[in-house]
């Protein structure tokens, strides 16, 4: 489902003496349907960079990143927009939303964007929020004022609202209590069972070992870091 | 799929000074494109060329008309272009007073656009106006007030209602949130986002506010000195800018 083929990336900081910082060299990774792969490596090794490249958030300098039949490295913006709407989900570490939009709408949005009727989308959002223990009295409020853990759970609810065939998870269990952590892990398990290809970053090693089928050490592809 | 708007090598100079040059892009139905750049970078010139307010020196602006498919709006006749301006296009000005009739009531401002496309039944026009004022969160009891009695944020929302009442397919916006305080901005952004989604609008938004484009635009175009220096997905351009100027622009935003 996800195929990363000899991908490279460097940042050029034009306003800081045109410093060129190579961050990734020749990384290759394949993730099949129903498989969960953890990106591992020290802080700064390029885990998030690789994940952002897969999502099209960072440009890829060379190589291919195939999600289904779309090459994220070369696709036009509108193709990536469609890919993100229909195929590739992303649970980021931080929730970024428009102020004033209610939590229910934030969670239902991915479903509405893919053509689900409003009633059904809201119903699905209610189920997810209940499951993640977001109290019903908060549903009509904007999540911008929620606590860190609540925001994280809203973010997860949103990420799992639509059954994407491919999913990127950036620290989904950080800042969660044991009960909610267990819920999130079982949601990841269900997505796997559905056939979702998952790439995740977990500093929570117990969670990683529980749900990931294998690990991918990014350090091997970090220029200047490889042993 | 046919693009809704096809812009082909647009250039406009003011004497020897470049307004904008060599701008090309396609905009598809439902897409929102942001144009950012500093003052004087040519973004408003470009927007005015696209919307038919200025005649570019070179290039073509093709619009997918309902009857004849793609037509060059620069070479079409003035009445045809004006008709587009009343029906399929809308233009939201930075200063609401440029887009409103200040001596006509709020309801009249909305109703006038409907009459321009041949609505004649007073009761229906008023009902439609009330509906639209409600959508932009102006209460019904203000329908007979003139825009001069409205706050800046309300005027801007009224301008949006006036523009969208005829169900346009393409909206041009020039700094729609400029000059408004941040809480009013947030409300307006939320409103615009909802309307874009509901009506499947395409929009071109000129702004210098990067937060506005991050929330509203799917794609981004960065201009400097009349040239397009970078384009791409909005979050990609903002998070991984390639051009020196874009990097400077993004890193200059103050963190709250």
Which terms summarize this structure?
heterodimer, A: 227 residues, alpha/beta, 4-stranded antiparallel sheet, 7 helices, 9 strands, globular, B: 256 residues, Rossmann fold, 2 domains, 6-stranded mixed sheet, 10 strands, 38% helix
In short:
The complex is a heterodimer of chains A (227) and B (256). By secondary structure, chain A is of the alpha/beta class.
Could you explain the architecture of this structure?
The complex is a heterodimer of chains A (227) and B (256). Chain A is an alpha/beta fold. Chain A has helices at 47-55, 77-86, 103-113, 118-131, 148-159, 178-194, 205-211; strands spanning 2-13, 19-31, 36-40, 62-67, 70-71, 88-91, 166-170, 197-201, 214-217. Chain A has a five-stranded parallel sheet, sandwiched between helices. The two termini of chain A are 30 Å apart. Chain B is an alpha/beta fold. Chain B has two domains: 1-88 and 169-256, Rossmann fold, CATH 3.40.50.300; 98-167, no CATH class. Chain B is built from ten helices and ten strands. Chain B has helices at residues 43-50, 78-86, 96-99, 106-116, 122-135, 152-164, 182-199, 210-216, 234-239, 244-251; strands at 5-14, 17-27, 32-36, 58-65, 69-72, 89-92, 170-174, 202-206, 219-224, 227-233. In chain B, the strands form two sheets. Chain B has a six-stranded mixed sheet with strand order 6-7-8-3-9-10, with helices on both faces. In chain B, strands 2-1-4-5 form a four-stranded antiparallel sheet, covered by helices on one side. Chain B starts with a strand and ends in a 5-residue tail after the last helix. The model of chain B has no long low-confidence stretch (mean pLDDT 91). The A-B interface holds A 11-15, 52, 56-59, 77-78, 80-81, 96, 98-101, 112-113 and B 28, 31, 186-187, 189-190, 193, 197, 214-215, 218-219, 231-233, 235-236, 239-240, 242-244, 247-248, 251.
């Amino acid at each position: 489902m996800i195929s990363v083929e000899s991908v490279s990336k460097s940042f050029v900081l034009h306003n800081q003496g045109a410093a060129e910082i190579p961050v990734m060299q020749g990384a290759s990774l394949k993730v099949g349907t129903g498989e969960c792969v953890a990106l591992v490596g020290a802080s700064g090794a390029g885990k998030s960079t690789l994940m952002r490249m897969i999502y099209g958030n960072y440009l890829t300098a060379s190589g291919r990143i195939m999600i289904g039949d779309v090459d994220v490295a070369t696709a036009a913006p509108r193709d990536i927009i469609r890919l993100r709407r229909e195929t590739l989900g992303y649970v980021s570490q931080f929730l970024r939303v428009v102020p004033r939009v209610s939590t229910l709408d934030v969670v239902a949005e991915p479903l509405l964007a893919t053509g689900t009727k409003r009633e059904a989308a809201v119903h699905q959002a209610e189920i997810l929020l209940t499951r993640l223990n977001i109290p019903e009295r908060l549903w009509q409020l904007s999540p911008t004022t929620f606590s860190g853990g609540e925001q994280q759970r809203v973010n997860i609810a949103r990420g799992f609202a639509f059954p994407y065939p491919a999913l990127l998870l950036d620290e989904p269990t950080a800042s969660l209590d044991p009960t909610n952590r267990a819920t999130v892990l079982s949601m990841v398990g269900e997505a796997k069972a559905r056939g979702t290809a998952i790439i995740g970053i977990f500093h929570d090693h117990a969670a990683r070992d529980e749900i990931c089928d294998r690990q991918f050490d990014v350090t091997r592809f970090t220029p200047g870091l490889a042993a | 799929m046919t693009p809704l708007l096809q812009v082909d090598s647009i250039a406009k100079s003011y004497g020897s000074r470049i307004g904008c040059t060599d701008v090309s892009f396609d905009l598809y139905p439902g897409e929102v494109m942001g144009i950012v750049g500093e003052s004087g970078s040519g973004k408003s010139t470009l927007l005015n060329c696209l919307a038919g307010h200025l005649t570019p020196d070179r290039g073509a602006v093709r619009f997918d008309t309902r009857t004849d498919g793609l037509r060059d709006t620069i070479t079409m006749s003035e009445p045809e272009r004006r008709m587009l301006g009343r029906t399929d296009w809308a233009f939201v000005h930075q200063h609401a007073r440029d887009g409103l009739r200040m001596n006509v009531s709020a309801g009249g401002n909305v109703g006038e656009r409907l009459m321009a496309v041949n609505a004649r039944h007073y009761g229906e026009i008023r009902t439609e106006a009330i509906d639209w004022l409600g959508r932009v969160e102006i209460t019904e009891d203000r329908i007979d007030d003139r825009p001069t009695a409205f706050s800046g944020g309300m005027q801007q929302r009224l301008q949006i209602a006036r523009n969208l009442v005829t169900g346009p397919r393409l909206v041009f916006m020039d700094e729609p949130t400029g000059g408004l305080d941040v809480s009013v901005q947030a409300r307006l952004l939320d409103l615009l986002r909802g309307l874009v989604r509901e009506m499947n609008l395409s929009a071109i938004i000129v702004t210098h506010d990067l937060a506005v484009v991050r929330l509203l635009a799917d794609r981004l175009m960065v201009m400097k000195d009349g040239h397009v220096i970078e384009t791409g997905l909005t979050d990609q351009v903002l998070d991984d800018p390639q051009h020196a100027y874009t990097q400077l622009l993004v890193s200059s935003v103050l963190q709250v």
